[in-house]
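Example 9 (inverse folding). The structure is encoded as follows.
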């Protein structure tokens, strides 16, 4: 598809120019800016093509010495990574008893959350917020570590991106990021609660608008944007505290003032809302869409680096991206040119471009900008 008119951000900057041919990456860039629809020029017919990557330059990878190979194997052994048995790391996680238990817990807690939120919205019933968060907290305790939670969520992307699944994901990611930020247990729990309730306002949006498969008109688009205000008004009637209410109201505000509904910036935005803004966008981009599959975490990190760092609390977004990248050290991956390797070292200045062990040679993606990590294995 070809863009029919210039696409503007909320602060009137041009994100895509008229005539731009859309790709998966460009569509995801629109998500990063919170843009829900664009005009398409139906008179232009474009043949769909894969995004092209240039061939690897000669000499871009250096052979590994035996000493370095031994060190890599020792790092893997120290990290508890088993020897290659023909299964990928995520295949082993998916077949584990821990994942089966997490999946059962996730389904049960998602259904429980759906029941509670629907009771609140449809019947105006006062809910026990403490009771709502107890189940997800138990899930976190059983998962054992933040890295395990990230692994489990990575494998849950076959779920649809319904409001309740998204709220569960953001709640767990909020807890993980709050811990990475060094917040105490009480604040981590409050961050989890903010994630659980942040999108409750979507339940006030008519389903024919919220789930409309075609382009929204201006009136429908304006209605969808009101979900943050609807959520705030709903939560004013509940005993959930200011942080949870503010996270619902402000999670689409942006640090540079380009968000909505109040166009707040910087410290004007509640810290729990600033935290939720990061995890909300990350979950949206790593979840499946009707027009694409879930994006690899490193592609999402790359999009944040290219488009989004100034839009989020700098400490929060950099802490999150750094730890996401660290979570997948020693994980096998597939590159955009089809080659398979293992992530062995991160580049602090280019978190989306780590060093890859290709089984006899190193490849520094920061020196090969035409290449990227397409899939974690």
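The amino acid assigned to each position is listed next.
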């Amino acid at each position: 598809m070809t863009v029919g008119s210039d696409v503007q951000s909320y602060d009137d900057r041009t994100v895509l120019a008229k005539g731009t041919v859309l790709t998966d990456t460009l569509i995801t860039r629109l998500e990063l800016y919170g843009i829900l629809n664009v005009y398409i020029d139906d008179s232009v017919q474009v043949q769909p093509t894969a995004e092209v990557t240039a061939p690897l330059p000669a000499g871009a990878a250096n052979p590994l010495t035996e000493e370095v190979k031994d060190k890599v194997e020792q790092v893997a052994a120290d990290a508890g990574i088993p020897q290659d048995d023909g299964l990928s790391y995520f295949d082993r996680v998916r077949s584990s008893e821990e994942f089966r238990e997490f999946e059962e817990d996730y389904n049960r807690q998602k259904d429980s959350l759906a029941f509670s939120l629907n009771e609140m919205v449809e019947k105006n019933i006062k809910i026990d917020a403490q009771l709502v968060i107890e189940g997800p907290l138990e899930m976190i305790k059983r998962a054992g570590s933040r890295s395990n939670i990230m692994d489990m969520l990575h494998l849950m992307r076959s779920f649809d991106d319904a409001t309740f699944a998204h709220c569960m994901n953001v709640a767990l990611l909020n807890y993980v990021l709050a811990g990475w930020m060094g917040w105490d247990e009480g604040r981590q729990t409050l961050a989890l609660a903010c994630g659980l309730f942040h999108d409750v306002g979507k339940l006030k949006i008519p389903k024919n608008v919220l789930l409309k498969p075609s382009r929204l008109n201006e009136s429908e688009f304006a209605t969808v944007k009101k979900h943050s205000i609807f959520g705030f008004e709903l939560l004013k009637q509940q005993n959930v505290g200011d942080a949870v209410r503010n996270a619902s109201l402000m999670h689409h505000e942006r640090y540079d003032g380009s968000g909505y509904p109040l166009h707040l910036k910087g410290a004007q935005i509640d810290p729990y809302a600033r935290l939720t803004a990061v995890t909300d966008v990350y979950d949206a981009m790593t979840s499946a869409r009707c027009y694409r599959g879930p994006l690899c975490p490193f592609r999402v990190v790359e999009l944040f680096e290219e488009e989004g760092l100034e839009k989020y609390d700098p400490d929060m977004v950099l802490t999150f991206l750094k730890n996401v990248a660290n979570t997948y050290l020693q994980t096998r991956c597939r590159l955009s040119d089809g080659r398979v390797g293992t992530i062995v070292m991160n580049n602090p200045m280019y978190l989306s471009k780590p060093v890859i062990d290709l089984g006899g040679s190193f490849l520094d993606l920061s020196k090969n900008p035409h290449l990227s990590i397409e899939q974690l294995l």
